[in-house]
Amino acid sequence: MKDTLSLRKSGGRLMITQDNFNLEYTDPIEVYQIRHFVCKEICRQIHRYIKAMSGSKQQMLLFEEHLQGLSLDEKEATIAQYLDLNRKALKGLDMKLVLARAMANYCDTYSYLVTLINDKRRIVQYLQLINDIYIRYHTVFEENGKFGIADYKGNVIVSPKYEFLRTCYMYVGTFQILPIIAQLEGKMGVILPDGKDTIVIPFDYDSISLREEPPYFDAKRKGRHVYLNMDGSKYAKKQVEEKEKK
Q1: If we measure between CA atoms, which residue out of 90, 9, 87 comes closest to residue 45?
Q2: Contact 217, 229 (CB under 8 A)
Q3: Higher per-residue confidence, 101 vs 236
Q4: What is the chain's alpha carbon radius of gyration, rounded to the nearest angstrom?
Q5: Which of 25, 157, 189, 237 is deepest in the core (most CB within 10 A)?
C-alpha cells in the first residue's frame, strides 16, 4: 500500500502519492525559508533605494527597527505597504534573480540548488507567490463620474466623491501614510487614504502640485503661491526658495 499525503489546492484536496510526490508536493519548510530569504533580499533592495535617494544611515536603521520583532507575515505585509508608497524602490529589480539568491541561501547542496532552478513549474509558483506577497498596490476607480481609491483587497480607502485624485509617489524612509491630492467641488486639497477621508490640507486652493522635497506641496490661491508640508504647515514660497539656494 502506497503512503499518501494530502495537500490543499484551489477548492479541493489533492491526494499525493509516491508516483506524483516530486511533481505535486511542496515542502512547507522550504516555502517558509525561501520567503524568509526573499524578504531579506527585498530589504536589501530598499536599503539601496534609500541610499540612492540620498537617505541617511539613520533612515535605514529606522527601517530595520520598524521590522524588528515582527513575524515573517507581518514583515511581508509591512514591506508591501512601503513598496506601495515607494514603487520606484523595485525599479530594475529582477525578481527571478531575487528568487535565485533566496534559493541559493536555502539550499545546502549545489545539486539541490540546480534541481530547484531547473524546475520551471516550481519557479513559476514561487515567482507568483512573491508577486502576491509584495505587489499589493492600491487602485483608483471611477463611480458615477467621481473617483475613489481601493486597496489591493478591494477595500475603499478614499470615497468615490472627488473630481480628481493624484497619488503622491515620493521618497519616504518611513512607513507613514502618504496623502492624496484631491479636487472637491472645484477646489483642491489634500486628504489621507485612511478610509475616513481625513483632510490634511483644506479644499481652499485653485491648484496644488507636488514637489520632490519638503515642503512637498506647491499650492496656489487667488494668484498667490504657498508651500505646504504633509502635516498642513505653511511656508512662504520666497522663504523656501532662498533656503534651497544656500
Answers
A1: 90
A2: yes
A3: 101
A4: 23
A5: 189
- The pTM for the full model equals 0.72
pLDDT above 90 (res 37):
yes
Contact between 211 and 217 (Cβ < 8 Å) = yes
Retrieve residue 190's grid coordinates: 489634500
**Which residues 6+ apart lie within 8 Å of 104 measured at CB?**
113
Mean residue pLDDT of the chain comes to 84
CB atoms near residue 75 (< 10 Å):
20
* Per-residue confidence (pLDDT) for residue 237, from 0 to 100: 64
Beta strands in 107-186 (DSSP E): 139-143, 146-150, 156-162, 164-167, 180-184
What values do phi and psi take at 32, rounded to 5?
-60, -45
* pLDDT at residue 8 is higher than 50: no
Mean pLDDT value across residues 8-37: 69
For 202-239, b/e burial (b = at least 16 CB within 10 A) is: ebebeebeeeeeebbbbbeeeeeebbbebeeeebeeee
pLDDT at 206 exceeding the cut of 80: yes
> For the chain, what are the domain ranges?
5-134, 139-245
Q: What cell does 167 get?
A: 497619488
Torsion angle in degrees (nearest 10) through CA of 115, 116, 122, 128: -160
